[in-house]
Design a protein that fits this description.
By secondary structure, the protein is α/β, with parallel strands linked by helices. Helix content is 23%, strand content 24%. It contains three helices and eight strands; from the N terminus they run αββββββββαα. The strands form two sheets. It has a four-stranded mixed β-sheet with strand order 2-1-4-6, with helices on one face. It has a four-stranded mixed β-sheet with strand order 3-8-7-5, covered by helices on one side. A hairpin with a 7-residue loop joins β1 and β2. The termini are far apart.
Amino acid sequence: MPTPTFDRRTFALSLGALATATPLLAATNATKDTTADHTVMMLNADCNNANVVNVFEPAILHMNPGDSVQFLATDPSHNSASKRGMIPDGAEPWNGAVDEALVVTLRVPGIYGYICLPHYDWGMVGLIVVGSDLSNLAQVKKVRHPGDARKNFRALLKQLEEEAA
């Protein structure tokens, strides 16, 4: 019988399950409930390519309105914060603390752009699509970004448009 593999991703997802089960390990901006439907890991390097540094995994997440996502502080020195101008009208922004897990419930359909504040210039960015709604795509595309964030957001938005086509 083969020995099961236990890689960094599996370990991080296991920690995420622990954090959602332990209220003291997770925070939320919308509710006291700390369970999450989805997990995004904040990593120093891509799970599949160590040469790609400072990433959210997955970089694009699709979810339903009312679902929660936990941003898991897998590696040190990262946070998750919504990017001004890159969330749907009426949606609540968030700004998690560095090195802490954060659970965010997203109720308003649309595209949400988010960043790691310490690594924003270096391109640590991600997108969440709630309810398959791309109605704020034009608004999201208008937002300006520094350094590698511009390149990475463009690539993610292109991927999102290709998925929708």
